[in-house]
Amino acid sequence: MSGTEKRGVRPAPAGASGLLRNIGPGVVVSGSVVGSGELLVTTRMGAEAGYVFLWGVILACVVKFFLQVELGRQCLLHGRSTIQVLDQVAGFRLLGTSWIAWLCVIGYFSVMIALIGIYDAVTGLMITVVPGLPTNLWAVLIFLFMSVLLYRGLYDDLEKLVTGLVATFSLIVIGSVLFLQTTPYAVGGAELASGFRLALPAEGAFVALAVMGSVGATAVELFMYPYWISEKGYTDFVGKDDGSDAWRQRYRGWMRVLYVDALVCTGIATAITCAYYLLGASVLNQLNVVPQGMKVVEQVSLIFTETIGDWAYYLFMFGGFCTLFSTLVVFTASSGRITVDFLRQVGVGALEDGARRLKTIRLLQIAFPLSWLGATLVLAEKPLALLLLGANANALLLIPLAFGVLHLAMAARGQERMSMRSEIGLLLSIWVIISFTAVNYYLK
After folding, report:
1. In 10, 104, 218, 260, which residue has its Cα 20 to 30 A from 68's Cα atom?
2. From CA 272, how far away is CA 276, in angstroms rounded?
3. Under 8 Å between Cβ of 226 and 77
4. Is the separation of the CB atoms in 217 and 29 below 8 Å?
């Protein structure tokens, strides 16, 4: 992929330390996963419903693990991007591309309405912290900051940046949950037990569906995952399948790395999402505060100031900036790559040239946030509403994406077929996603 130095085959690392040193794509995805959904949607759900939906939050985080692994496995086996995986599905084709690839790409870009909401929320955050500058100026400054960071377009740079952001806000929010237990808002055993009764809050059904679409490895993050696997170099490390024992050994070894990478992504998302949900259910619900409007991040800051103290306000705002900004950065970087990949798939031959492809990606990494900037200037004051709409679109995108992955997985034969355990996990995941979506739309 663009901006990455290609490397030859290499054996997979051995031992726990070797595995952990070689993960990375899941960390990059976590920068998008652990973002607006956790900070805004999950705390909003806790504020509305209390502890009752804790089981749904955990389920939404872990249920997509097998989809993530299977998309990654296809990339290791064949070097296929998500679009190339979906293109294997039979049926109607437009411009030489499968109908389901078109459907999923349209769904992917429909989720961008949420990015307008996130951009709006970041702008509102900066206005709150530094009120002396006009709203429009902050919106422009955020755009310029993103453009400078993404211009080089190198995977290693992005991985280091996102790792720092993820680590920072992870420590901040988990520390806040620990402080919570020393306050009147402490979470007791009875409250936790009430969160596992499998109840669905009818009054929060719209937000509940948004939780499925915005926490854990969501549909758009699943879409991104193979691109980051390729840029990390896993595909090169495994090499072409020549039928040799050496290739099979490399493949099995790097699949272990991929499993650990996906587990780390899922683990980070689950821990931080549950932390945000508990803070929302314990603090915002008791205060009867439902976050909304341009200053939604400031309203959510009560989960820190009420637990740690007023001095933690700026600590939270810094963590909130890391959370939201990392989502913007990863989504922008991924969308540039996905757009170029799709254009190549439908026959834009000029993008076969590596230098032109890299230039196009860089231009798109400016064009996407520029469009969000323009929309933010027009649609200000509605960040959470836009985010919830995008999150619901994200939840719906899971269904055709899961269908495409399942179709390909079930059609595979021999060593290309996943293990029985993974097949069962994938089938259960898809059943949960469809059932969850259907029940919430019925309640809505």
Report:
1. 10
2. 6
3. no
4. yes
What's the Cα-to-Cα distance from 253 to each of 185, 232, 286, rounded to whole Å?
46, 16, 49
Cα 421 versus chain centre, distance: 25
Q: CA-to-CA distance for 359 and 353, rounded, in angstroms? A: 10
Residue 3 in any domain: the answer is no
Both tokens of 7, joined, read 């490397």
Kind plus residue range of the DSSP H or E element containing 93 = strand 93-94
Buried b / exposed e along 364-386 (16+ C-beta atoms within 10 A): bbbebbeebbebbeebbebbbbb
In the chain, how many domains are there? 1
Check which CATH number belongs to the domain holding 286 and give it.
1.10.4160
Number of neighbouring beta carbons within 10 Å of residue 194: 16
Domain that holds residue 23: 15-443
Which residue type sits at 229?
I
386, 116 Cβ separation under 8 angstroms: yes
Q: Which residues contact 169 (CB under 8 A, 6 or more apart)?
A: 34, 272, 319, 320, 322, 323, 326
pTM of the predicted protein model: 0.78
CA distances from 225 to 69, 171, 177 (A): 9, 24, 30
* C-alpha span between 192 and 214 (Å, rounded): 22
C-beta of residue 33 within 8 angstroms of C-beta of residue 264: no
Q: At 187, phi and psi to the nearest 5?
A: -90, 120
Per-residue pLDDT of 244-301, as tens digits, reads 889 889 988 999 999 998 888 888 888 888 888 888 888 888 888 776 655 567 777 7
Q: Say if residues 270 and 61 touch (Cβ distance below 8 Å).
A: yes
Instruction: Select from 302, 296, 299 the least CA-distant residue to 283.
Output: 302
Do the domain assignments include residue 8? no
Q: Is residue 195 part of a domain?
A: yes
Domain-embedded: residue 277: yes
Q: Which two tokens stand for residue 376?
A: 């933010």
Six-digit token pair at 402?
A: 């899961």
Out of 188-192, 251-255, 306-310, which region has the weakest mean confidence (pLDDT)? 306-310
The 10 Å Cβ neighbour count of residue 414 is 5
CA 148 from centroid of its chain's CA atoms: 22
Cβ-contact 84, 75 below 8 angstroms: no
pLDDT tens digits, one per residue of 393-413: 777 788 888 888 888 777 766
